[in-house]
Design a protein that fits this description.
Length: about 120
Amino acid sequence: MNDQTTTVAELAKLIADFVDERDWNQFHSPKNISMSMAIEAAELMEHFQWISMEESREATEDIEQLTAIGEELADVMCYALALANQLGIDVSDTIDRKMRKNRIKYPVQDFQGRYGHKHRRDST
């Protein structure tokens, strides 16, 4: 599998099959999944805690660190897909609609090269 050939639907099915095989749907409420996703996001953030922005960009140079970061990112994404599965959310359509809103909220002429949240209080 790779990003160039694998669809979101295939990834969502991979997660659904994994959950079904273990009979975990009984535990996979939207509440529990969202909490688990937040915990995994915190574990991902630990890799970048106390380092500079430049050091964080250098993570690609350390294969062991990059692998660990990738595994935490995978955990976050697996829970995101599990949540989408539980709620019947079409991830591609939802991202497309959200990006359309973001294009209106953050027009290029006002935000190019600028950090959007400095200029607007509401988040993406």
